[in-house]
């Protein structure tokens, strides 16, 4: 009997040890990242809930858009509690962002960095199915963007250093890496030649500090690439060149031929890194994508060509002329969903980056990790009623355009921009588009379709061709229904526990 007990205890201890060593093996995620299989190194950027008026709930995004499509890694712009809660137990690798506005305090205060780590990392690592698999902490959102000037630049490396220390203090430094996403205007080159690549002169000191920080902790350099902006700004290259088309005219640079814009960008960065002594640093693409509306050449068909070209190129593992057979270590596609409240300073297309529409329906097909299957859409999406707001043709309409303009200052009218899907809609159809957008933004409240008596609520869908007059998502009310169900469930579970306890005591 005694021997038996002892051997059982021993066995249990061995099993526990085994389990523990598997769970705690450090750096296992980075080795996974090294896996040769291309599709695995592709992730998606999932935008902030504050960039959408009616964000698709994380409880739908994670199972349908991420898990059902085999997405293996995701990047978040901030530590959104409900997104992180939904990602717990999913085994999806997560990169958590820190907004630019927080960099100053994180760089000046070690304790601010420690509490950020405590609140937004440590807390999510345990619990539900093993918690959230956090792989990266992302310092800022393109803080070196030329147009930001010195707003964030002086605080970036300090914030990264303090966060790194805070992670080390709680033994997490070997579980995740601290990275800084750089916009592609951090480097430049003369006459577009990759071999002439160098970092922007005003960044010279900061960039050296950043690179030495990254090198010390074996973290990759993260670059965000915006090909449609480059296409608009640089008339020297054809659209085909950006879309990885094989028939496009290559660029010659010494012994090297550049067949697409992507390789050109990568090697311009490689040259810039080499010039300051970091030629071997790993590269991760933090954002890359193509929008589908709101500008010329922003269509689902062109976006699909771009994505196919990109994914095929990454999966081929061909790399670039300066780094043959060494493609970026990871690439995050920008973006998962359309976001109707993003700033449109750069163009109307900013609100149409999604592979999926705002309500989680795929715009085109693409291999995100699901292989040859068609992309899964979100299920169980809850919409508001089938109601639209249009202009009332029976009223005197001389003042209607100013009303429309006012509606568009809050609501999303980016599809009306030149080249957009509704740019061909004549007056007053375009006014109806603006009215409806405002009406949906305000959850179809009757007074949001007033417009001085010029608005009219209708149940007839005004959609014309590709110009879709959307109905928005039901958000707040649906969560309150869920909460009610959850609380009843807790009561039932509580009763069960009492019954079990009574039975147990009775025995
Ligand atoms: C955690 O992250 C959230 C979202 O970015 C932020 O609002 C909050 O201030 C962070 N917590 C700390 C202690 O910094
Ligand atoms: C475009 O090409 C022309 C002629 O080859 C060259 O002079 C010009 O500098 C190029 N533009 C850019 C932005 O490189
Ligand atoms: C760094 O940039 C500053 C400002 O642009 C310049 O004055 C300085 O000479 C540069 N230093 C180096 C080493 O390039
Ligand atoms: C049009 O707007 C002007 C100024 O806001 C106002 O005085 C006028 O009454 C309006 N006309 C109609 C028909 O609503
Ligand atoms: C609608 O179209 C008319 C005529 O083309 C134009 O003047 C007006 O600015 C447009 N309104 C909106 C909201 O796009």
Automatic annotation (TrEMBL):
InterPro entries: GH, Glyco_hydro_17, Glyco_hydro_17_plant, X8. Residues 1-24 form the signal peptide. One of its GO terms (cellular component) is side of membrane. It comes from the Eukaryota. SUPFAM superfamilies: (Trans)glycosidases. It is found in: Cell membrane. It catalyses: Hydrolysis of (1->3)-beta-D-glucosidic linkages in (1->3)-beta-D-glucans. Its main location: membrane. It is a lipid-anchor; GPI-anchor. Its EC number is 3.2.1.39. This is glucan endo-1,3-beta-D-glucosidase. One of its GO terms (biological process) is defense response. Belongs to the glycosyl hydrolase 17 family. The keyword Signal applies. GO terms for molecular function: glucan endo-1,3-beta-D-glucosidase activity. Residues 387-469 form the X8 domain. Keywords: Cell membrane, Disulfide bond, Glycoprotein, Glycosidase, GPI-anchor, Hydrolase, Lipoprotein, Membrane, Plant defense, Signal. Transmembrane segments: none annotated.
């Amino acid at each position: 009997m005694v021997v038996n007990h002892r051997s059982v205890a021993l066995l249990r201890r061995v099993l526990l040890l085994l389990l523990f060593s598997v769970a705690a093996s450090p750096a296992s995620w980075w080795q996974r990242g090294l896996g040769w299989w291309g599709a695995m190194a592709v992730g998606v950027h999932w935008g902030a809930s504050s960039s959408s008026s009616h964000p698709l709930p994380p409880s739908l995004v994670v199972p349908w858009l991420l898990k059902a499509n085999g997405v293996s890694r995701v990047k978040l712009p901030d530590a959104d509690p409900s997104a992180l809660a939904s990602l717990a137990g999913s085994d999806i690798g997560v990169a958590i962002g820190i907004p630019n506005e927080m960099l100053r305090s994180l760089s000046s205060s070690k304790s601010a960095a420690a509490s950020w780590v405590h609140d937004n990392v440590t807390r999510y690592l345990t619990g539900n199915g093993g918690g959230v698999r956090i792989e990266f902490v992302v310092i800022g959102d393109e803080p070196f963007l030329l147009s930001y000037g010195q707003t964030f630049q002086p605080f970036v490396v300090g914030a990264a250093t303090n966060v790194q220390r805070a992670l080390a203090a709680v033994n997490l430094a070997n579980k995740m890496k601290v990275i800084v996403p750089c916009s592609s205007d951090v480097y430049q080159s003369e006459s577009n030649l990759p071999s002439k690549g160098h970092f922007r002169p005003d960044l010279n000191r900061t960039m050296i500090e950043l690179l030495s920080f990254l090198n010390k902790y074996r973290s990759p350099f993260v670059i965000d690439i915006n090909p449609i902006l480059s296409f608009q700004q640089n008339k020297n290259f054809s659209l085909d060149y950006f879309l990885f088309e094989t028939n496009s005219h290559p660029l010659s640079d010494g012994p090297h031929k550049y067949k697409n814009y992507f390789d050109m960008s990568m090697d311009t960065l490689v040259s810039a890194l080499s010039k300051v002594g970091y030629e071997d640093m790993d590269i991760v693409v933090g954002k890359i994508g193509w929008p589908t509306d709101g500008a010329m050449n922003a269509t689902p068909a062109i976006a699909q060509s771009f994505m196919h070209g990109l994914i095929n190129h990454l999966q081929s593992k061909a790399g670039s002329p300066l780094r043959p057979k060494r493609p970026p270590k990871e690439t995050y596609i920008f973006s998962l969903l359309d976001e109707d409240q993003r700033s449109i300073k750069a163009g109307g297309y900013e609100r149409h980056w999604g592979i999926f529409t705002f309500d989680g329906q795929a715009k085109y097909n693409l291999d995100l990790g699901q292989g040859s299957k068609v992309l899964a859409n979100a299920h169980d999406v809850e919409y508001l009623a089938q109601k639209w707001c249009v202009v009332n043709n029976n009223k005197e309409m001389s003042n209607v355009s100013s009303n429309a303009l006012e509606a568009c200052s809050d609501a999303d009218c980016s599809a009306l921009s030149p080249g957009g899907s509704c740019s061909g809609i004549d007056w007053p159809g375009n006014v109806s588009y603006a009215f409806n957008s405002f009406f949906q933004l305000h959850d179809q409240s009757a007074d949001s379709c007033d417009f001085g008596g010029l608005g009219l609520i209708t149940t007839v869908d005004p959609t014309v061709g590709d110009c879709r007059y959307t109905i928005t998502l039901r958000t707040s009310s649906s969560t309150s229904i869920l909460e009610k169900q959850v609380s009843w469930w807790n009561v039932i579970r509580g009763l069960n526990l009492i019954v079990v306890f009574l039975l147990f005591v009775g025995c």
